[in-house]
Amino acid sequence: MSQDKFALLGNICYSTGPNKIHTIERGYLVVSGDKIVGAFDTLPDEYSGVRVEDYGEALIIPGMTDLHVHAPQFPFRGIGMDLELLDWLNTYTFPEEAKYSSIDYAEKIYEFFTQALKASPITRAVIFSTIHVPATRILFDKLEASGLISYVGKVNMDRNSPDDLRETTTTSLADTELLINEAKNYKRTHAILTPRFTPSCSDDLMKGLGDLKAKYDLPVQSHLCENPSEVELVRELCPTSKNYADTYDRFGLLDDKAIMAHCVYLNDDEIELMKVRKSFVAHCPQSNINLASGIAPVKKFLELGINVGLGTDIAAGASLSMFRAITDAIGVSKLYWRLVDEDFHALTFSETFYMATMGGGKFFGQVGSFLPGYEADVLVLDEKNSGVRRDNLLERLEQTIYLADENVILIAKYVAGKKL
Predict the structure, then answer these.
(1) Coil, helix or strand for 90?
(2) pTM for this entry
(3) Left if phi > 0, otherwise alpha if psi is -120 to 50, otherwise beta: which for 287?
């Protein structure tokens, strides 16, 4: 990688941990190659000759990581929001995903999805495809060309699924291994094992995926304890498992490279297991509202040291905006504190900004902060209306996030030091 050195000049804001956002007014963010050198009040002497991009009074913040998004569901976001999870899957999701047997359809929709992702605050994403190998290849190609960095998983489903989305166990595993090996040819787009969720994956399939994980040292993404009906279905399908989380863990699918979306109804044993395994929770607040799933106890997860990031969960989440995910996470946590458990106060803005940047970015390594050595994922933001408050940089950042839909311009976006 070329060690191009440059600096960005503007109002810098970044997390150093869940409870601290560091700010520098008209500071310099120095980048060397794909890494952050540091953020400084004045440009260090040793970098006095580097190229400086002066962004005036714009905000410079880390890129955001979407830990959970379904690319094939992009066309029907915002539809069927009066249904709960299982009915919504059968009515909208499965019929839509079956369409990706068509190369032409996949080509069209994945182009729309990729361009929307590129135009968003998201610099890295962890993405579900469908069961279809040719369509998943198209998604790989488009994401690779976009300059974004991502993980993409071919979905596995061999039971309790519509006929046109149900694989045989053997075919599911063979197709998955085929794509694992093909993904080695990509630089920015990586393979991730993707059992849709326990109800759609037999024990034989889960065991096979566990074997592939061990063979190739792969990450895993799936769903866990999203909806009461889903949790009850898992209990009926897996009577010998200790709990829902155990249906993954017994096959070696829970570790520090695993992302479990939602985690609304984890019991104490499951919470402890997620902590011990160092697995990631992808908190998807808008999805949990839209499908009436509930409110995840995210404050508890953070206080216990569990890895937590945010997900848009298109299309159960109707918006690809990580800004919206930040503010929704705060809102639902207030309801959890007020209505469910007053021992856990609402999430702060600092905590949710951390989850969108540094917390979710941790899945990719040192990503999502401007601390030295972190990968240089950067967003440059400005307001359309200069009438917003500018006297306090931290308040300006919070207001920018809350008013994003009406007042934010994404001026520039860098991924691993490369401007898109």
Answers:
(1) helix
(2) 0.97
(3) alpha
